[in-house]
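So, could you explain the following?
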Amino acid sequence: MPRIPTIEASDANLFIRFVYWMTKRHVGRVIVPVKVTAHHPQVLRAMGEMEQAQQKFHSILETLKELASIKAAMLVGCPF
C-alpha cells in the first residue's frame, strides 16, 4: 500500500489512460509506481521516455541488463 494515493483509470485523463494501457500491454498490469506518478503527467512522460531510451540501448547484453535490474530491485526491497 503506497503512502501516496494512486490515480485509478476511471479518474484519469486521456493521456494517463493511454499510459495505463501501454503499461498493461507491456508489463501485464498497471504497476503502482505508474499510478502514483500519474499525479504529475510531465514526470510520468519523462519516466516513460527514459524507459524507452533504456530499452533501445543495445551495447550491453540483455541478460546483464536483467541481472542489474534484479539486483537493483533487491537493494531497494522492490517486490516487482
User: Anything to note?
Assistant: Residues 3 and 59 are 37 Å apart (CA to CA). The chain has four helices and no strands.
